[in-house]
Amino acid sequence: SQHYYITNNLSVMKRRRKEQVYRPDRFEYLQALLTEYCESEVAHAKQEIVANLANFAYNPVNHEHMQKLNVVDLFLDLTDDEDLILRRMGVMGLVNLAVNTQHRDHISEKLDLILPLLQSRDTETLISTLTLLYYLHNEGVTDNDLRRTLQQLQSESECKRTSNLLILLLRNSTTYSSKTSVS
């Protein structure tokens, strides 16, 4: 019985080594996904590919590869796509990349592409947009127009998750204003 376990375990390990030999590296895999996205004309396929890219963006190990492949620019381009699912997945991908300083800086430079998503009627898109703004403005929202937009959204919000994110964003803004006025 013990011999069978060891033999079986060894065969599993050999099989895994063989599988690893044929597995493309992360960069190649992400590059293949991007190529497939660019070549695909099927909406559902594009949605699935962007969802996969957004999921891969969650892992910091992939951030450098995604930077080389300009995946952040794809996600930014999708923020005004006609397809709601592509917009949603694009902003979710941006949220996942925003933990990386270089990506966050690049995304911050393109706020004009992101802010229109605050008008989205899709709850998941709005929540992801607010989460992204939270990452981008962890010191607080300093732009008065944006702060007023967030306050208006809070007064109109019927969704508890949206309301909670708005409270956090606005609370950080108040804290930021207090810190800067005391200095």
Descriptive notes:
There is one protein chain. By secondary structure, the chain is mainly α. The chain is built from eleven helices and no strands. The protein has helices spanning 2-22, 26-39, 43-56, 63-68, 71-78, 84-97, 101-108, 111-114, 123-136, 144-156, 160-182. Helix 2 packs antiparallel against helix 3 (43-56), helix 5 (71-78) packs across helix 6 (84-97) and helix 6 packs parallel to helix 9 (123-136). The longest helix is centred in the C-terminal third of the chain and has 23 residues, at 160-182. It is globular, with a radius of gyration of 21 Å. Mean pLDDT is 84; it is low at 1-7 and 175-183.
Q: What do the pLDDT scores average to?
A: 84
Largest sheet: none
Structural class per helix/strand content?
mainly alpha
User: If you compute it from the alpha carbons, what radius of gyration comes out, rounded to the nearest whole angstrom?
Assistant: 21 Å
The amount of beta strand, in percent, is under 5%
Instruction: Write the H/E string, N to C.
Output: HHHHHHHHHHH
Tally of individual helices: 11
Fraction of residues in helix: over 70%
Cα separation of the termini: 73 Å
Stretches where pLDDT is under 50 for at least 5 consecutive residues are 1-7, 175-183
Count of individual beta strands: 0
- What best-fitting shape do the alpha-carbon axes yield? globular
Oligomer: single chain
